[in-house]
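User: tokens in, sequence out, please.
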């Protein structure tokens, strides 16, 4: 179908790819257009197929998934990268976000989570498996060795909302937590994007993590 999510799948285990491909085949509007067994092949397949999404493992022979993700984002910035990994460690999640990934999914996640992640990144949102969002924030805080100054371009409320976005919360969740309307959250998010020159939620998430803006109350 014309509006299907076109996806390239990269994992160095044939049986794992077969299982994931079978799972993806059960999702309405998702089409696997290519497969790869390593990072270099993933780069080639993305160049050939120009998919909407690359679903890629981290640990692969030769070029790993993170290096491949960074190169693919450089060559094809419109492709959304979702990392599928057995690692829940904050270090891996941070590296994936820094490589340009829009989503990070743990391999023991429920099938519905994979579908939700794909649809989220297609909407321009980021997706972190439940349980790793807090690890990302806490892990980054531990490595900061002190607070960084807040970005003067943002108001306190905007920094607060940016922190919530970095934690993986959607507009309705943020609105509920902060006691404001979802429309107000969307308005603030648009202003944040304009001020920072970042025009997607995944980019905002990476910016917030790099800047240490993680002090907002949940």
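Assistant: Sequence out:
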């Amino acid at each position: 179908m014309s509006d299907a999510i076109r996806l390239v799948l990269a994992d160095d285990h044939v049986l794992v790819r077969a299982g994931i491909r079978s799972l993806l085949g059960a999702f309405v509007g998702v089409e696997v257009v290519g497969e790869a067994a390593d990072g270099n092949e993933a780069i080639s397949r993305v160049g050939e197929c120009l998919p909407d999404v690359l679903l890629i493992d981290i640990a692969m022979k030769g070029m790993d998934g993170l290096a491949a993700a960074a190169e693919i984002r450089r060559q094809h910035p419109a492709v959304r990268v979702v990392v599928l990994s057995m690692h829940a460690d904050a270090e891996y999640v941070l590296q994936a976000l820094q490589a340009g990934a829009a989503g990070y999914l743990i391999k023991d996640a429920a099938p519905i989570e994979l579908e939700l992640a794909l649809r989220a990144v297609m909407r321009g949102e980021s997706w972190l498996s439940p349980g790793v969002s807090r690890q990302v924030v806490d892990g980054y805080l531990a490595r900061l060795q002190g607070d960084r100054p807040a970005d003067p371009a943002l108001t306190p409320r905007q920094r607060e909302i940016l922190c919530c976005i970095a934690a993986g919360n959607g507009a309705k969740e943020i609105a509920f937590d902060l006691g404001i309307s979802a429309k107000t959250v969307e308005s603030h998010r648009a202003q944040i994007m304009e001020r920072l020159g970042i025009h997607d939620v995944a980019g905002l998430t990476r910016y917030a993590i790099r800047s240490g803006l993680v002090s907002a109350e949940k």
